[in-house]
Design goal:
With about 80 residues, the chain is mainly alpha-helical. It is built from 3 helices and 2 strands. Helix 1 packs antiparallel against helix 3.
């Protein structure tokens, strides 16, 4: 029973990290920090605009792969992987 509770607590921790990164990327970089980021140019576009339009998508894709990798390691650690 303790193994199951530890697995779920680690799972929730990973999910909370993902949600925090999602919030910072979408709300923080896309809305709150857009003006300071616009002072920087990336490929001819202001960084704030680029982050709101393209960068967030790349960050979310990276987050999906990171989450999958971490969950695979967690499943192996607690011997719950698909058989």
């Amino acid at each position: 029973m303790e193994n199951k509770e530890t697995y779920w607590s680690e799972n929730i921790r990973i999910i909370l990290i993902c949600l925090a990164i999602w919030f910072v990327v979408s709300f923080g970089f896309g809305l709150l920090l857009v003006e300071p980021l616009n002072a920087i140019s990336l490929g001819g576009y202001k960084l704030g605009f680029w982050f709101a339009q393209q960068g967030a998508i790349y960050a979310f894709l990276g987050l999906i792969f990171w989450y999958g990798h971490k969950m695979n390691k967690l499943d192996i650690k607690y011997d719950t992987e698909s058989k």
